[in-house]
Write a structure and sequence with these properties.
single chain; alpha+beta; Glucose Permease (Domain IIA); 10-stranded antiparallel beta sheet; 22 strands; 33% strand; globular; binds zinc ion
């Protein structure tokens, strides 16, 4: 089994059914919806004030394949902890401990990995063992949350080792029904806004979160929480999400390809990403939809409205809704400043009433999806600032909100089996968690 598949399997194995239901009910009952740390030792560490997270001594690796040092190799040290503040240098910090400038240079230049120490940044931490007489015996430096460098003076000079830790991961569940907004619902479910944003991004290809959301829509998610030493560091990724939008139902499973790319796939392995985003302007509202006939607000004549109008303040960025090439950027009568992007052979998008174009936008320029290509304005015949947006398929105007968008890739054939196994495990977890959530709610 490849490494990523086994990671999810490992995570899921840690939640046997009975244990899960009980702990979830307990957790919900106490209002504490956090998984308990896995071991007594990490519990003890979690209760002390957040210490320097340098290994002391290094903890045994979670996985067999980790490059860590066994605890008994580390002799007893008389560590002094140093925090880097603005203006500090390694030389300055160590001089304060009685270490000579020469000795510091010798250390830093002894190994390539240690050159990093010459560029300390405020907030970083070091740990040093300085013997009587200012002799530096050992140094530890936390290069980042997960990586620590250790240097020890040995008989043949400095020996450097890298300690790498991995996060402890906990699977977490949330669900909510939307009354007013997606973000409110997310907050009620205990989700951070960035997690809700992740959710919106996953389904943003199929659901227009401005226009399509109805009261009663609901979602549920399985996501990871990342811990170090039993303390939560942050939320990780959404592993599975479901969205019920009216009578539509969407599912997405996070999948890491063997080449490292990450995508969200539906249950059949098809990417949920499309070649286009539905809404080319953020923080807007639809002020006029696509219609076969309507009264033109300025011309006072009835004619078809072949696009969608998004009301937004002047200067709001307009995003390219897909990868493509600019084929027109200039004035066009009542449309004012207009940008047209061609996407492949079949599709084109048009953006009108623009205040101005983004820097570097000109005919022939290649743009990528979500690039800012222009800014909302009221040029041409417009009653107020808005983006008029058109979507054409083979030259024919289509409703940008409803047109079937071309789909991006799918899981590679060689990974399909693993993906389906993963997806099934996640589906089972989702069902168990939903059940436990229901039990907990009914018993309140
Ligand atoms: Zn319009």
């Amino acid at each position: 089994m490849p490494e990523k598949a086994s990671h999810i399997a490992r995570l899921l194995r840690r939640f046997p059914r009975g244990h899960l239901a009980v702990s979830l009910v307990l957790a919900a009952a106490t209002g504490l919806f956090m998984a308990l740390p896995q071991s007594g030792s990490s519990l003890a560490e979690a209760s002390s004030p957040r210490p320097l997270t340098l290994p002391h001594p290094p903890e045994p690796a979670q996985d067999g394949n980790q490059n860590t040092v066994a605890a008994e190799q580390t002799p007893d040290r008389d560590w002094m902890e140093l925090e880097v503040t603005s203006g500090d240098t390694l030389v300055g910090l160590l001089n304060d401990q009685g270490v000579s400038t020469e000795a510091v240079h010798e250390l830093v230049s002894s190994q390539k990995q240690l050159t990093r120490l010459a560029d300390l940044r405020p907030g970083e931490r070091l740990r040093v063992d300085v013997a009587d007489g200012g002799r530096l015996e050992a140094l530890q430096y936390q290069a980042n949350e997960l990586k620590t460098l250790s240097a020890e003076r040995g008989p043949d000079g400095w020996q450097v080792q890298t300690h790498k830790r991995s996060y402890e991961r906990e699977l977490q569940y949330a669900e909510a029904t939307i009354n007013s907004s997606l973000f409110r619902a997310g907050q009620r479910a205990g989700m951070t806004n960035s997690l809700t944003m992740q959710l919106a991004n996953i389904f943003g290809w199929d659901i227009d979160f401005i226009l399509d959301i109805r009261s009663g829509d609901r979602f549920r998610v399985l996501y990871e929480e990342l811990y170090l030493d039993g303390e939560k560091v942050r939320n990780g990724d959404i592993l599975m999400a479901e969205f019920y939008n009216g009578d539509r139902h969407f599912q997405a499973f996070r999948h890491e390809m063997e080449d490292g790319r990450v995508d969200y796939l539906d249950a059949s392995g098809q990417s949920v990403r499309k070649e286009f985003i539905r809404t080319p302007v953020e923080f807007s509202r639809i002020s006029s939809g696509f219609s076969k006939s309507r009264e033109h607000p300025v011309l006072n004549r009835t004619r078809a409205h072949k696009g969608v109008d998004y009301a937004a303040p002047t200067g709001t960025p307009v995003k390219a809704s897909g990868d493509g090439k600019v084929v027109f950027a200039g004035r066009k009568g009542g449309y004012g400043n207009v940008l047209i992007i061609k996407h492949g052979q079949k599709y084109s998008t048009l953006y009108a009433h623009l205040n101005r174009f983004a820097r570097g936008i000109h005919v022939g320029r290649r743009v990528e999806q979500k690039d800012t290509v222009a800014y909302v304005g009221a040029s041409g015949l417009a009653t107020g600032p808005h983006l008029h947006y058109e979507f054409r398929v083979n030259g024919v105007h289509r409703n940008p909100l409803r047109v079937d968008l071309p789909e991006a890739g799918h899981v590679p054939e060689s990974e399909r089996r693993d993906f389906l196994v993963e997806a099934n495990q996640l589906k089972n977890q989702m069902a168990l968690r939903a059940e436990a959530f229901q039990v907990a709610r009914n018993s309140r």
